[in-house]
Inverse folding.
């Protein structure tokens, strides 16, 4: 079955008909929540890098990275519209809800991808542009079209795409990929599985109905809980790496240690949670805290290393 046929089948199953799209539908197509995380982590990478761009070029670079993230979201929604239609969390998205045509979403995704990569290459450098192109391709093709539907390790491997923004931001400023930028990559890469597996624990019925082989669906709740705890421990250690390699102060180390300890404690609560818990409140708490955890780590790095550079960027 072709992509268009799958989308039509999903739309029919959801009982929707095509209606006129509004501006908000096109914004939703770009996954603004995901885009906000991409922009923030890319901004941190760009600001704390040892070299700085002119303020106008820095802003334009961030816009290009944001557009690239939005392009990835549009391509993801185009291909996944059939499974989005049967999941309660995603059924109201613009394509399965019948407000944006799949071909239109595909055209938007491709057009924005090309534009974002070209602009970043012209205003910053082609190293950053190449990394952005690789990230879009990895998310749209490797993750969306292959990993998500074929392996329970989809989030683990696919998490590489979500971990790239600070590396792209760093490369936009320096033209290089360095150990420091790879440390930022590692933190997000290790953060992604426990973050999404916590969500999948209390959304497993949705994933099962859509045929998506998330870990709780394929391996069961108990195995997922063990994996979450294991990743939480490794993540808490990795969160200390910026201080270990000298790109952060002891203050960051203390904050990272406290945040990591809380993350592990919440993961322990998930591990001790009954497999048939109908509410799965520990998983919900861990999911919410994981967002705070990542934001706080990068915010502290930004405050420690970037306040003077922010002042320079502001003119």
């Amino acid at each position: 079955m072709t992509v268009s046929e799958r989308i039509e089948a999903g739309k029919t199953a959801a009982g929707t008909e095509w209606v006129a799209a509004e501006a908000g539908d096109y914004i939703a197509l770009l996954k603004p929540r995901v885009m906000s995380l991409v922009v923030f982590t890319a901004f941190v990478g760009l600001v704390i890098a040892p070299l700085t761009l002119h303020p106008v070029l820095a802003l334009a670079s961030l816009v290009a990275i944001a557009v690239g993230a939005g392009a990835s979201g549009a391509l993801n929604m185009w291909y996944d519209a059939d499974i989005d239609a049967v999941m309660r969390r995603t059924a109201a998205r613009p394509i399965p809800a019948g407000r944006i045509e799949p071909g239109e979403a595909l055209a938007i995704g491709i057009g924005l991808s090309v534009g974002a990569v070209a602009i970043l290459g012209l205003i910053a450098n082609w190293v950053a542009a190449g990394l952005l192109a690789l990230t879009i391709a990895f998310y749209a093709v490797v993750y969306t079209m292959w990993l998500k539907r074929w392996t329970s390790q989809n989030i683990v491997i696919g998490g590489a795409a979500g971990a790239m923004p600070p590396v792209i931001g760093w490369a936009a400023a320096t033209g290089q990929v360095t150990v420091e930028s790879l440390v930022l990559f590692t933190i997000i890469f290790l953060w992604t599985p426990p973050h999404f597996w916590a969500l999948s624990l209390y959304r497993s019925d949705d994933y099962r109905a859509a045929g998506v082989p998330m870990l709780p669906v394929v391996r069961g709740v108990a195995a997922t809980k063990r994996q979450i705890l294991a990743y939480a421990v490794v993540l808490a250690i990795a969160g200390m790496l910026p201080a270990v390699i000298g790109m952060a102060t002891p203050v960051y180390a203390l904050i990272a240690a406290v945040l990591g300890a809380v993350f592990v404690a919440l993961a322990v609560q998930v591990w001790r949670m009954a497999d048939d818990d109908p509410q799965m409140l520990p998983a919900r708490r861990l999911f919410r805290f994981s967002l705070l955890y990542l934001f706080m780590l990068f915010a502290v790095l930004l405050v420690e290393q970037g306040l003077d550079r922010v002042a320079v960027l502001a003119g």
Observations:
- The domain at 1-174 is CATH 1.10.357.140 (Tetracycline Repressor; domain 2).
